[in-house]
């Protein structure tokens, strides 16, 4: 009888221990962030008049849910020629990422661009985003929903991105950007082009061991803006820390 009670007690203790030390279920929520510096900030291949021709600090925070919903913020210092250099771009975005099969996925989202301390609110605006990813290749289409000083309602930016892993933690990164322009808007009414090649990027990036740092070098082959002005070719260097 004593042996039976002792065995039963040991069994209860073992069960309690297994419950105590059981692995907690994975959270459906995840948050990540990054901060980095670039030698120059050239929005969508515009190299003749950069958003910031000097060293640029950029960073972002991202939230995602296991069901596919996501939201985030991205920001960058700007240099529009003011004395205090306080101009700042804020991109607030949200959307949904879904999977069609093992190789094919899609994204539906929207971004609100808010520019701080640039002297006008006419640069702020909403943009939709549709994306499709097949294996290592992704395609996105971003359409402006309102007239701004940098675009007209309906202006659409098309981008294709492909990265190829190389030895020693290097990666070959490429991107092609095209633009469809609407002729008239509240602030822009003299577009000479309706569709054109905007830029082609090719670069190398490398993760630096377990530091969380990634270094990159990107060469932009300049295309043409909405007025058919050729953009300069340019090299940009960057260093980013992810957390």
Count of DSSP strands = 12
Going across the biggest sheet, name each strand in turn.
1-2-3-4-5-6-7-8-9-10-11-12
The first-level CATH class name? Mainly Beta
Number of spatially distinct domains: 1
Keywords:
243 residues; mainly beta; Porin
Account of the protein in words:
By secondary structure, the chain is mostly beta strands. The protein has a single domain, classed as Beta Barrel (Porin). It contains one helix and twelve strands. It has a twelve-stranded antiparallel beta barrel with strand order 1-2-3-4-5-6-7-8-9-10-11-12. The protein starts with a helix and ends with a strand. The N terminus is likely disordered.
Secondary structure: elements and pairs:
Blueprint (H helix, E strand, L loop, with lengths): L1 H19 L8 E10 L17 E10 L3 E9 L10 E12 L4 E13 L8 E10 L2 E8 L11 E11 L3 E11 L14 E13 L5 E10 L11 E9 L1
Antiparallel strand pairs: 1-2, 1-12, 2-3, 3-4, 4-5, 5-6, 6-7, 7-8, 8-9, 9-10, 10-11, 11-12
In brief:
The chain has one helix and twelve strands; from the N terminus they run αββββββββββββ. It starts with a helix and ends with a strand. The protein has one helix spanning about 1-20; strands at about 30-40, 55-65, 70-75, 90-100, 105-115, 125-135, 135-145, 155-165, 170-180, 195-205, 215-220, 235-240.
């Amino acid at each position: 009888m004593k042996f039976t009670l002792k065995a039963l007690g040991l069994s209860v203790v073992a069960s309690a221990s297994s419950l105590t030390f059981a692995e907690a279920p994975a959270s459906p929520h995840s948050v990540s962030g990054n901060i980095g510096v670039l030698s120059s900030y050239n929005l969508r291949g515009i190299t003749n008049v950069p958003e910031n021709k000097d060293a640029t600090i950029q960073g972002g925070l991202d939230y995602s849910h296991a069901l596919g919903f996501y939201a985030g913020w991205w920001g960058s210092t700007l240099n529009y020629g003011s004395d205090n250099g306080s101009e700042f771009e804020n991109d607030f975005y949200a959307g949904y990422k879904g999977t069609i099969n093992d190789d094919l996925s899609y994204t539906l989202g929207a971004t609100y661009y808010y520019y701080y301390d640039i002297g006008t609110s006419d640069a702020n605006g909403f943009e939709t985003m549709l994306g499709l990813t097949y294996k290592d290749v992704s395609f996105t289409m971003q359409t402006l929903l309102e007239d701004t000083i940098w675009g007209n309602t309906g202006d659409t930016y098309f981008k294709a991105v492909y990265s190829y892993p190389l030895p020693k933690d290097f990666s070959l990164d490429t991107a092609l950007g095209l633009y469809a322009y609407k002729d008239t808007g509240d602030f822009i009414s003299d577009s000479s082009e309706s569709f054109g090649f905007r830029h082609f990027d090719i670069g190398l990036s490398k993760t630096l061991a377990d530091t969380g740092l990634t270094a990159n070098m990107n060469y932009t082959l300049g295309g043409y803006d909405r007025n058919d002005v050729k953009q300069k070719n340019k090299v940009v260097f960057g260093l980013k820390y992810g957390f």
